[in-house]
């Protein structure tokens, strides 16, 4: 692709779906905040598991079970190393970010009392809003919302003023999936810990765009989804500090999370298995390990710098479009841009972009309270990954202008 460095071309060559055509046009995939494409290495690993290793894990004495168990647990170790956790038993495999947040809301929530407070922000994804609303209904906790400024940044003064001895948990996104805003996580964690509160970080949008080290952050919980970082869907991770996870009751009951069961009493398994009831997404966990192996094989500093260049280039081009407004203008943001054009509905523009081979996301992006804040029904969101190019952005801008001319 013209204007693409050899390094990015090499990365692109590892993702077979990027060669696809849509309506006879080369695919331009700008929906990476929703899910990333998968490298051939991950696809091959999924096939290899079902072709030669398929067996249930843990407790099996036969060869296939032992091989599958070892590969699954090796993947857990890879996750532990990738995010900088101190212990492998602090890595809980989940279905994804949403499942991880619900686990914490349900299990850690059992340790809360009526009147205890949970702080979230006005830019949260629905998956970091609704579980806390359910907890409020169930336990009588108080859910408080940290406001944001018009540029999409947190009102940190308001946050500091909201912290008090009743604050038990701050649950907040690392990077907004709609605005791209990168929140000052280390400062948030330090301030929250100052009043004795725990902190949960929604890392769904940060895990693939920068280095994450949970030990350095000193967060209490960190959640992310495998499909956001080139792995399969249906697999995710909850990191939690061992001392906190040990105090939390199980999330679900069933096989593997038990030590011994009788009709009189059941005792629970050790970490991490206490929170992994039933047969897990075995191949998902293994393939997530392969996706992280892929990330470790590339120059991530160069890749992340490339993503930032794409964002800057895209915003410069978009701001030349008459009537276009960008939502989320923080100086600290990652590689996505949300915008509208005049009074044209975002769905209409998205539909015409699709006919030209451009894949973007339109709608409220599971952040309806954020849409209400800006008094809009939704936005058009273009989100970039390490395999995207400036040449693709040029095609996107050309297609966007064409769509606007049709709809105006």
Would you tell me which CATH topology of the largest domain applies? Aspartate Aminotransferase, domain 2
Strand content range? 15-25%
Main beta sheet strand tally, sense and closure? 7 strands, mixed
CA radius of gyration is 22 Å
The largest beta-sheet arranges its strands as 4-10-9-8-7-5-6
CATH top level class name of the largest domain:
Alpha Beta
Instruction: Give the overall form.
Output: globular
| Secondary-structure-derived class | alpha/beta
The tally of beta strands, per DSSP, is 17
Written description of the protein model:
The protein has 408 residues and is of the alpha/beta class. The protein folds into 2 domains: 6-30 and 299-407, Alpha-Beta Complex (Aspartate Aminotransferase, domain 1); 43-296, 3-Layer(aba) Sandwich (Aspartate Aminotransferase, domain 2). 39% of the residues lie in helices and 17% in strands. It has 14 helices and 17 strands. It has helices at 6-12, 40-52, 63-83, 97-107, 130-139, 156-162, 185-194, 214-217, 242-247, 282-297, 300-318, 346-354, 368-374, 390-407; strands spanning 21-22, 25-26, 28-29, 91-94, 117-121, 142-146, 167-173, 198-202, 221-225, 236-240, 258-261, 266-268, 324-327, 336-341, 358-359, 361-363, 379-383. The strands form 5 sheets. The chain has a 7-stranded mixed β-sheet with strand order 4-10-9-8-7-5-6, sandwiched between helices. Strands 13-14-17-16 form a 4-stranded antiparallel β-sheet, covered by helices on one side. A two-stranded antiparallel sheet has the order 1-2. It is globular, with a radius of gyration of 22 Å.
């Amino acid at each position: 692709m013209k204007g693409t460095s050899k390094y990015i071309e090499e990365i692109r060559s590892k993702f077979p779906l990027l060669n696809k055509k849509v309506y006879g046009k080369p695919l331009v995939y700008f929906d990476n905040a929703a899910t990333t494409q998968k490298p051939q290495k991950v696809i091959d690993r999924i096939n290899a598991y079902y072709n030669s290793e398929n067996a249930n894990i843990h407790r099996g004495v036969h060869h296939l079970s032992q091989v599958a168990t070892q590969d699954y647990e090796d993947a857990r170790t890879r996750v532990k190393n990738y995010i900088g956790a101190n212990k492998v038993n602090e890595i809980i495999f989940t279905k994804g970010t949403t499942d991880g947040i619900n686990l914490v809301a349900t299990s850690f929530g059992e340790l809360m009392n009526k009147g205890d407070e949970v702080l979230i922000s006005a830019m949260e994804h629905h998956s970091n809003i609704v579980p806390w609303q359910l907890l409020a209904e169930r336990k009588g906790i108080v859910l408080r919302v940290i406001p944001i400024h018009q540029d999409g940044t947190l009102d940190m003064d308001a946050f500091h003023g909201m912290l008090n001895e009743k604050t038990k948990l701050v649950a907040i996104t690392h990077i907004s999936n709609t605005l791209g805003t990168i929140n000052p996580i280390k400062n948030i964690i330090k301030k929250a810990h100052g009043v004795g509160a725990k902190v949960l970080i929604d890392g769904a949008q940060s895990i693939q765009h920068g280095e994450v080290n949970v030990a350095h952050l000193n967060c209490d919980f960190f959640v992310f989804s495998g499909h956001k970082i080139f792995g399969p869907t249906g697999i995710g991770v909850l990191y939690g500090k061992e001392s906190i996870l040990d105090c939390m009751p199980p999330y679900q009951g069933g096989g593997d999370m038990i030590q011994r069961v009788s009709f009189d009493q059941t005792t629970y398994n050790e970490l991490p298995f206490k929170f992994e009831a039933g047969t897990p997404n075995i191949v998902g966990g293994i393939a997530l390990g392969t996706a992280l192996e892929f990330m470790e094989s590339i120059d991530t500093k160069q890749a992340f710098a490339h993503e930032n260049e794409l964002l800057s280039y895209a915003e410069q081009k978009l701001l030349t479009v008459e009537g276009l407004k960008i939502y989320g203008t923080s100086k600290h943001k990652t590689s996505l841009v949300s915008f509208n054009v005049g009074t044209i509905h975002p769905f209409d523009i998205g539909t015409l972009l699709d006919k030209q081979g451009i894949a973007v996301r339109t709608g409220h992006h599971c952040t309806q309270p954020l849409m209400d804040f800006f008094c809009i029904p939704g936005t058009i969101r273009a989100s970039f990954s390490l395999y995207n190019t400036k040449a693709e952005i040029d095609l996107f801008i050309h297609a966007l202008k064409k769509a606007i001319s049709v709809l105006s």
